[in-house]
Each structure stands twice: as C-alpha cells, then as structure tokens.
Specification:
The complex is a heterodimer. In chain A, 77% of the residues lie in helices and 1% in strands. Chain A is built from 23 helices and two strands. Chain A has a two-stranded parallel ribbon. The radius of gyration of chain A is 24 Å and the shape is globular. The relative contact order of chain B is 0.18. Chain B folds into two domains: 27-127 and 259-305, D-Maltodextrin-Binding Protein, domain 2, CATH 3.40.190.10; 129-257 and 315-340, D-Maltodextrin-Binding Protein, domain 2 (3-Layer(aba) Sandwich). Chain B is α/β, with parallel strands linked by helices. In chain B, the strands form two sheets. Chain B has a six-stranded mixed beta sheet with strand order 2-1-3-9-4-10. Chain B has a four-stranded mixed beta sheet with strand order 6-7-5-8. In chain B, helix 6 crosses helix 15 (330-340). Helices cover 44% and strands 13% of the residues of chain B. The chains are: A mainly alpha, B alpha/beta. At the A-B interface, helix 6, helix 11, helix 12, helix 14 and helix 17 of A face helix 1, helix 2, strand 2, helix 3 and helix 8 of B. Chain B: InterPro entries: Ferric-bd, SBP. Chain B: Fe cation binds at residues 224-225. Chain B: Keywords: Iron, Metal-binding, Signal.
C-alpha cells in the first residue's frame, strides 16, 4: 500500500499541478487545438488497437496452434520488433518511403513521373504513425496471447472439436474468449505506450496529447496547463481500464482442468499453410527485417568512426540499468500483485492501479514528477544538516542513478504488474485453498504451486521491462548523472540532429542488445511450457 | 561530523549506483549542463581539458528540461555552467535567477555587445541563421525578397516548413511580431499556412530534401543543416544539397532572422573560475574556428575562418533584434501559430 503510493508519487505530483490556475490558456486551447489533440489521440489509439489485435492475436494463434512451414522460427522471430524503439522505425521508414527517399525516387525514375503525377501514401501522417506503432507494439499482444493459448487446457479445445467445431470455430468460440484477459492485458500495454509516445508523433507532425503537453509546457511556459493536459490524458487511460473491467463483469477466467499436455497443432492444408507462412513473413519483414537492414546499411557507411571503447561503455550502461530495473520491477510487481490477491481491499486495488498509471504518461513528465520530490528531499536534508551539523550534504539522490531507476519503475511497473497479474489469474483461488487444506504452509503453496505455474509470466515480465528500459529515452536524458550515457541517449542525440546514418550503429546496438534476452526468454518460455506438459 | 558525511555518501555508493554529485570537488573540474548534444561538442571540450587540465563533466539534454532540473536542484545544483542553443532559454534562466554575472575583459572584448547580456549574465558563442532556401532549377532568386513576401499568392502550394512546435519557428515568428506587430503577423501566418505544399512534418533537413526532390520550391531552414548535408557521408544527401541554394531575406530592412547559441555561469556554481575559463576558451580563435569549419554555424566573432560552403553563401545583414525579446514573445508566437492552424 505505502509502496504503491510511493511509486504513484510522481503521478500524484504531476496531477497536483491541476489545481494551479492556468490563466486564459485553456480558453486558447479549446478555441484552437484541443479538439485536434483529442481526436488525433483517439484515432491513433483506435488504429493501433485494431492493428495490434489483428497482427498479434492471429500471429499468436497461428504459431501456437497451427502447423505450417517455418512455424518454429516465426514463433520467436515475431518477438524481435519489440527491441525496436518506435521512433527508430519511424525514422528508418521515413528515410525509405518519403518523397525524397530511394523508393519514390526509383519509382519516379522508372515511370518518368514528377511531383504530383502520382499518389503515394504519405508516410508522415496519422495513418503512417498508426502503422509504425502497430509494427513495434503488436508483440505485446502476441506475447501475452500466445502464452495464454499455450496454457489453455487441451480438454477444452478437445471438447470443442468433439462437439463438431472446426478449428476456426474453436478459435472464435472457445480459445479467444478464454484468452481474453491476456489479450486485453497486452492490448492495454500497447495502447498506454501509444498514448505516451512522443518521438514518433512529433516527428510525423501529428498533434496528440503528448505533443500538446510539451508545446504548452515549454512553448507557452505554463506548467499548470501542461499538467492539466496530462491529467486529461490520465482520464483517457482510466476510462480505458474501467471499460475493460465493466465488460468483464464478474467473469473469472480460471482453468478448470489440469490436463496440460503438449497440444497437438492443427495441420493446415497446403494452401492455408502457405498463406499462414506468407502472413507471418510479411509481418516479420515489415516490422523487423526491412528497418534492421536499413540500419545495417547506414551502420556500414559510418562504422569506422563510431564504434570504439566509448561505444562499449554505452552498451554496458544500458545493460546494467535494464537488468537492474527489470529485477526490481519484477520484485515489486510480485509484492503488489500478491498484496492485492491476499488483502484485496478497495484501497489496495486503487493504489496498485495508481502505481501502474505511469505507463501511459510521457517519460519526460514522469521525470519531472520524480525530480520535484527528490530535489525537495535532498534540499531539505541539506538545509537541516547545514543548520544542525554545519556542513552541506549537497544533493544525495537527485542526479544519481537511483533517481533514474526510480523513474523507470514508475513508468514501467505497469508492464510487470499486468503480466504477473494475468499469470496469477490463471492460478485458481481454489488451488490455494486445496493446498492449504492439505496442510501446506502459505510458503509451500507459493513454491510448489504458484512458482511453476507463474514461471512463464515472470520471465515475460522481466523481458518486457528489460527491453522497455533499453529503449527508454526522455527520463534517462534528463535525470542521469554527469558523463553517463546510454545507447538510447546517443541514438537520440544524433537522430535529433537529423544525422540518421550516424545514429544507426547505436540504434542497431539497442536492437541487438534487446534481441538477446528476447531470444533467450522466448526459448525458456517454450521450454517451461514443455516441462509442464511432460510432468502432467 | 565526518562519520555522518561518509554515511550519507555511502548510501548510494552501497547500491552501486555511482557517486553523489556536488561532493566530489577535489580535482580541477567544471560541471556542464548542455543543450548542445555532447557528441557535437566533445572534441572542443577535450581540447579544453588538454590545454588546462580541467576536466569537463557533462549532462546533455533538452534545454527546457535542463532548466527545470537546474531550478529544482536550487542552490545545491552541481552544475557550474549552462550551455544552450538559443538565446530565449538563456533569458528564461536569467529571469528564474539561475545565472550569475561574469565580468571578464577577455569575453567583453571578444563577444560583440549585441550578442551578450548587458550585465554579463550570458555570452553568445555562435550565430544560427534561418534564411529562405530555394530550388535552384525552379526559382529565380529575384522573385524572393522578405519573409513577409512568402505569404503572397505566388507561392501557393510551394512552401515547406517544419512544425510550429519547433523553437526555431517560434523564434522566427516572435521576431516578426516584434517587427510587424501582432495583427499583421497573424494575417501573414494564415496566408503562409495556405501556401504550404504539405502539412508540416520532419526536421529542417527534411524540408531541404523536399525542395531538392521537387515537392516544394521554398523552404525556411537553418543554414547549418544545409551545410551538414554538403559534408554528409550519405551521397544522396550531398546530391540533394546541390539542388538547393540560400537566399538572405529582408536585406533591405531589418535583416535575416538569427538566433544565438550561448553559455552562462549558474548561480549555484561551485567551480566558478573554471566555468569562466571554459567560457573564455569557447570564444577563443580555435574554438570559434571549429564552429565555422566543422559545425557549420557562424562564429560570434568577426574575421574567423569558415568552411567553403559557408563562405560561398556570402555575407548577410542579420536582424539585430534584442535576443531578450525572442524569449519574451515566444508564448505569444506559439498562440498565434495555433490560431493560424500551423501544426
């Protein structure tokens, strides 16, 4: 409870600005741009929701339940785009598809067209942003729904088949509804990240809430109005969460069967199998292979001048922060989720909810929310010690990695909590009760029942936070100590100066560093699943 | 009292999370908050360390956020010096009482008085000009004259410029409000938006590339982006740069809009002398030449050598509007652009 409130502190601090007067700025905003901010944010979210659902769920179903050529590779390869920061994919596709880029230039040369002779979908548009964000965010839905499909009991699916449902009917009538909590969890992560995105929308010139917050805050110098915009953004997220809760009502999605056998995959007919292959290949090409190849090509252009010792330090720094934060986040998520499960009062629920709001708030806003209480604490300790002990302590926490990691936790805890909770949801309360009534201590229940069942979810939580931290930029940028750089910071420095080619090596390194855990963990998740079924 | 101190410094150290700032002042050093990207100034700072033995510690970031951090850290801020890429932010820092005055004969002699704060709160280091750029094969430079004239019908569907979220456009519009008044500038912005060839998107380089590719005839962009393209490692960027030329607007009246990058010593500075040394170094011949040769910006001092590209664009008259006004008119400029529908 206290912990959750502590983690919610930055969110609260930012919200507190809501009560400051913002002069006539609101009148100006409503008269001019507010309607734009709202409609663009809504359309963006809607588009990304549809996109990630279609790509994520269908890819998850195909790779987990159907047999077709290349399935084994796609199973893990489809996770790769996760390692790709949204703004990087936006930059690379713009480089490729923009009017002045190689694709359109070639088209013009071949066809002898000039400007205005033909129509080409403009990449830097709302539609473009939806596609870019969908390509990097669908893995959230894919990952969580795949885990859910794999965990579904064979019996349920078998019953469905015996009752005469075709594979596709089984999917729509049984598997999809059963996997719903996991799919929704993945979707809400994707949407929260969409609402918090700044890099892509500002590069594409789209007026969403995030771009609005920064314009108002810095351009008009009004922290109050910016905070009020941020608060409005939080209302968006709350509505999202409440709507999901309402639609779920009292339904519980526990499993009622313990038959966890290796599932037999549906054998697709040849033509369907190739269709599935083509679908997965297209997704993989568009979301990962093409942008990565472009980055690689740029990297080769500049490799000599960029890759040196300093580069390795960047890799080390990024890895250190990401792994530390991932472990801490997992620990906290477990603590909070169990707190909610065991002492699930309304207050605890609310606190946990509040603590996970950070995911939808732009990193820079979180960063300031972290700086305010930290600087206040430091300066208070300093004043006290100056008067009472006659020396200055200076700043103890501000400007250290403690502040940076705290900001990461505030921002990314939602990822860990969502994943752990959706895993915990699969452990029926009746299992706990049965185990307890058989004389097991709570700890033994935890060790013998929860841990084996949760392993997949815990690994997923670790992986998600790790990769998110690796990509994180705004909070790192503003909170970090002197002379401390990460891969994301370096990439941003060069990319923001519009030196895309020179930014490519570090961008590629983010992707490569993110790949390793993605691959290891996706193998581990598959294996943990197999172990379970062997035991059964 | 010693044990307390070591105890306090020990907490973060125990966590393996690095040193606490503000306490380690043993060696000669200077702590810099820089809105200029670290990778771009690193060679200069290394040179400074080599010359003086003073180590430079850097946090780079976005100017507004660094300002926010400086403000919150208050008198305990470890930063000795603030470096920005526009005068508006320096003025904001001054107003928030985050800067202290410096009086150095060397600085006063080197930096022309229009490019520094009269009381010595901050000093300009380089000039960043924002002229009109045009397609060499489609535009006759005689058609061009002023920023104001870009709003005329003849440029319908021909102009590319980036989003109004960008500080360069905010400063440009602020300078126009100062020159022409708010109502005239409002009408100008509305007509300019009507002349856009496409909704604002991308950065300055993207506008230049769009002109080269034929999507529009005119762009407004900072010169160092075009210079950077001329020296790019990417051949297509070099080719694009060849198709675009610079036109210096408003030469018959107030001059072309410029902004300055500059630096200041913070009010909380603990290494004040070293910060002043760094300021003096950044205005030295060698550092100023670096701005003109490598970075593609105009040195704040006269008579400094520049690279061939910059030299080929010739001399120009710049708007000598007081830099303070850019900061003061910024919010007004942004509202005006909101109203004009300039995204």
């Amino acid at each position: 409870m206290i912990l959750a409130l502590l983690l919610a502190l930055p969110v609260i601090v930012v919200s507190a600005h809501v009560f400051l007067p913002a002069d006539d700025i609101w009148q100006h905003l409503t008269e001019t741009v507010l309607a734009d901010y709202i409609s663009q944010s809504l359309w963006l979210s809607l588009g990304v929701a549809v996109g990630t659902l279609v790509l994520g769920v269908s890819a998850a179903w195909l790779t987990s339940m159907c047999q077709f050529p290349g399935r084994g590779v796609f199973e893990w390869a489809l996770l790769l785009p996760m390692a790709m920061p949204a703004y990087i994919i936006a930059y690379t596709y713009t480089g490729l598809l923009d009017f002045a880029g190689p694709v359109q230039t070639l088209l013009r040369e071949w066809m002898g067209w000039g400007y205005g002779d033909y129509w080409f979908p403009p990449i830097r548009s709302l539609g473009g942003a939806i596609v870019m964000l969908t390509l990097v965010l669908y893995p959230y839905v894919y990952l969580l729904s795949r885990a859910a499909f794999l965990n579904q009991s064979l019996c349920v699916l078998d019953v469905s088949r015996t009752l005469g449902n075709t594979p596709s009917q089984t999917f729509f009538r049984v598997a999809l509804p059963l996997a719903r909590p996991a799919i929704i969890a993945g979707l809400s992560l994707a949407l929260m990240e969409t609402l918090a995105d700044y890099g892509t929308v500002s590069y594409f010139g789209i007026s969403t809430f995030t771009t609005g917050i920064f314009r108002t805050w810095f351009g008009m110098g009004s922290a109050a109005a910016a905070a009020q915009l941020a608060a409005l953004l939080m209302v968006f997220v709350l509505v999202l969460i409440v709507m999901e809760k309402l639609s779920r009502r009292q339904a519980q999605y526990h499993h009622t069967s313990r038959h966890h056998q290796q599932l037999k995959r549906f054998q697709l007919s040849t033509s369907k199998a190739w269709l599935a292959f083509a679908f997965c290949l297209t997704v993989l090409l568009a979301s990962f292979v093409i942008p990565a190849a472009q980055l690689l090509q740029w990297t080769l252009l500049v490799a000599d001048s960029v890759i040196d010792d300093a580069f390795m330090t960047l890799v080390y720094n990024s890895l250190k922060l990401a792994s530390l934060t991932a472990l801490l986040a997992l620990f906290l998520a477990l603590l909070l989720s169990y707190g909610k499960r065991l002492f699930g009062g309304a207050l605890v629920r609310f606190a946990v909810r509040l603590a996970s709001m950070g995911y939808a708030i732009p990193g820079a806003v979180i960063a300031v929310g972290v700086m305010i209480p930290f600087a206040w604490l430091d300066n208070s300790i300093d004043s006290w010690s100056r008067t009472n002990l006659d020396f200055s302590t200076g700043l103890l926490l501000s400007g250290t990695l403690v502040a940076v990691i705290f900001a990461y936790l505030v921002r990314f805890l939602a990822v860990a909590i969502q994943t752990v909770e959706s895993g915990l949801g699969q452990v029926r309360l009746s299992m706990d009760e049965a185990a307890r009534s058989l004389g097991h201590s709570p700890l033994a229940v935890l060790r013998k029942i929860h841990m084996p069942m949760l392993r997949g979810s815990l690994l997923t939580a670790l992986l998600l936070v790790f990769v998110d931290v690796l990509k994180e930029l705004p909070a790192t940028l503003i909170l970090r100590p002197f002379n401390f750089n990460t891969l994301a910071v370096k990439t941003f420095e060069l990319a923001s100066d519009e030196r895309l080619a020179e930014a490519a090596p570090t961008a590629l390194a983010i992707v490569a560093t993110g790949l390793l855990p993605v691959i290891i963990l996706s193998i581990a998740i598959t294996r943990s699943r197999q172990l379970d079924s062997d035991k059964a | 009292m010693k044990p307390f101190k070591s105890f306090f410094t020990l907490i973060p150290a125990l966590l393996g999370l690095g040193m606490t700032p503000g306490i380690s002042q043993a060696a000669e050093e200077v702590n810099l908050y820089s809105a200029r990207m670290e990778s771009l100034i690193k060679p200069l700072l290394n040179q400074f360390t080599q010359d003086t033995g003073i180590k430079v510690n850097v946090v780079s970031g976005k100017a507004d956020e660094l300002l926010q951090r400086l403000k919150l850290e208050g008198r305990n801020s470890p930063a000795d010096m603030l470096l920005t890429t526009d005068a508006g932010r320096l003025h904001r820092a001054l107003e928030a009482e985050l800067l202290q005055t410096v009086s150095s004969d060397i600085l006063n002699e080197r930096v022309p008085s229009s490019y520094r704060d009269p009381e010595g709160h901050w000093y300009g280091l380089s000039l960043r000009a924002r002229p009109i750029m045009y397609a060499v094969d489609r535009v006759n430079p005689e058609q061009l004259s002023t920023y104001e004239q870009l709003a005329s019908d003849e440029w319908d569907n021909k102009i590319c410029i980036r989003s109004s979220s960008n500080i360069y456009n905010q400063s440009l519009v602020a300078s126009m409000i100062a020159a022409d008044g708010e109502d005239t500038t409002q009408a100008w912005a509305e007509n300019l938006v009507a002349n856009f060839a496409r909704p604002p998107q991308g950065g300055d380089r993207d506008q230049i590339k769009a002109v080269a590719a034929g999507q529009c005839d005119i762009a407004v962009a900072n010169t160092y982006y075009l210079a950077g393209m001329h020296y790019s490692q990417d051949e297509s960027e070099r080719q694009a740069a060849e198709k675009v030329a610079v036109f210096w607007p408003n030469q018959a009246d107030r001059g072309t809009h410029i902004n300055i990058s500059g630096a200041a010593v913070t009010a909380a500075a603990k290494n004040r002398d070293n910060a002043i040394k760094l300021l003096e170094f950044l205005t030295s011949d060698a550092a100023q030449r670096w701005y003109g040769m490598v970075n593609g910006e105009y040195p704040v001092r006269e008579g400094i050598e520049m690279n061939d590209t910059l030299a080929s664009w010739g001399e120009f008259k710049s708007d000598d509007l007081n830099m303070r006004q850019l900061g003061e008119l910024n919010a007004q400029a942004l509202r005006l652009m909101d109203k004009a529908g300039w995204r």
